[in-house]
Structures
1.
Amino acid sequence: MFIQTEATPNPATLKFLPGREVLVGEPRDFRSPDAAAISPLATGLFAISGVTGVFLGSDFISVTKDETNWAHIKPAILGVIMDHFLSGKPVIAEGGAGPVDFDEVDEFYEEEDKEMVEVIKELLATRVRPAVAMDGGDIIFKGYKEGTVFLHMQGACSGCPSSTATLKNGIENLLRHFVPGVEGVQQV
């Protein structure tokens, strides 16, 4: 098994590509060993000293570290990923929490803005999420209020130094262009 690695815009996060499907459905973001308990793969990665986050995408795994040097933990990460896929264990344990439906989680917007929100979600799904996934992360719509779109960054994008630029220069400009009424974008 050959696992490729790619740098992300976040220097604390590396993207690992095992060359096979990782997760079906919505991506999963684990920020603690307790949260990762439903995933044997994420649990194994959190067992490595220095790992602070694990993000599972459709065909990649993003791992975030503390100040530990990548040279010290990258071989262990590659070993855990390889061992996991060779073992045949599921990525999410049976009986673990079902996939999170981000369309329904903690969203807020006024009923009269429902049509606009659907357009915003469609643009995020078709234009933004695929690009952000290439960098090892994801972006989730959280709400809309008084011209501001509220978004949540996950994986490599969470805490990334360039995420503010991505939000302001990329996503905000895209949404302002296609959705009259959108004035700004804010990270939550």
Note: Strands lie at 4-7, 13-17, 28-30, 51-56, 61-65, 137-145, 148-155, 184-187.
2.
Amino acid sequence: MPVGAPSPAPRRRSVFASRLVSTHAEGTPPRVIDDMRRAILSGEEPPGTLIPIDEVARFFGVSPIPVREALKVLLGEGLVEHTPRVGYAVAKLTFAEFRELYDVRAALESAALRAAVGNAGPADDERVLTAHEGLARALAAGDERAYHEQSRLFHDALIAPAGMRRLVHMYRSAWNITEPARPMARVEHDGRHAFYDDHDRMLAAFVARDADTLVAESLAHYRHLTDALEGFADDLDVFLPG
């Protein structure tokens, strides 16, 4: 470098790479796909965030090959998208696509709930109640991230007794694709309180083994959710134009 020439600016890690967390145990291979998926589902990587393959590979201490393989899997799961000559990014939906995924979840949940009520026992009641109590704590603390996590645990607990493995896989896949938008972070406290009240009625119907009421309350809950989410339908930081 010529004398007096300015030093090159230090290389900055990309937003995506800077937020990655490695969870592999010492002496075991990096969990490339699991940790990339976890980063996307956390909502810390907003829709449209570019995923630089070389930087991600350096973070995990691997060649670009396993990163590319992981991206292909995540592409198939709908969590990332690929644009020629641009590369991979966290998937960004139109609001219509986002809303459609909520409709898919509502339909799958309705089918699973009817089967779940017929199979549920005391241990299932306890699991649903524990998630509901977690929701109450998150609501009282104003912690939208914990609220979102406990809400998902609550819905998972309701449908788990159904024993419908393939349906549950589709349900969770549809939910995963909406995670980067962090919907609960965009709903005001009063809205989250109303959703909690929905859950309260769903819990009561589940424990009573009242399938008709449970499905009706579930569908009402999804209507409340989608009505609330309409408020940020035009946010181009989250959604593609229309």
Note: Confidence is low (pLDDT under 50) at residues 1-12.
3.
Amino acid sequence: MKYEWRKQEKDLYSTKKQPVILTIPKQRFISLHGVGNPNGPEFSQKVQTLYPAAYGIKGAYKKFCVDRDVIYDDYVVFPLEGVWSLTKKGQQLDHLDKDEFSYDIMIRVPDFVPDELVKPTLESVKVKKDLSEIAEMEIKEFPEMKVAQILHVGKYDDEPASFQKIDALVSDNNKQRISKIHREIYLSDARRVEPDKLKTILRYQIK
């Protein structure tokens, strides 16, 4: 049976245009850290490193499942995500400077993929694909957390209007945003979709 995140985890990945509050379970990711403008070549290189790694793990898992009694013997690779913040300099500025973004760009690894498959697979992909940056890749685990999120449709630069909607919901429910760090889940491929039609889940942690 194939695990499809759009079907099995609708609440997490199919948010409508109205903000919601929900609890996110513990999750595991392969991740690359970076600083700078996401429109630059360094960011693109990190994305181009993450996808071969994610598909390599998927392929290794499918081989692992041969002749094993498992519920899921395959899965759809999860969407690209980014955890976004600012450098200390960026936090002190009175305007947004994209060169001062600090980010972790990542792809989720399903819980049912054994830990012992991940690191050897990353090393194998590094050699086969000649991707030296995989050496910098981290395996990150995020604990269960309560969040507020919304589906933003449109340009990335127009996200502040959607964040205002999340803020209003959080305030109405007597909750508080924990930090200025936020997460973006990219449901659209920016290389193939018009900017006005991009679908991005915006999320931040609350208490």
Note: Residues 41-65 form the longest helix (25 residues).
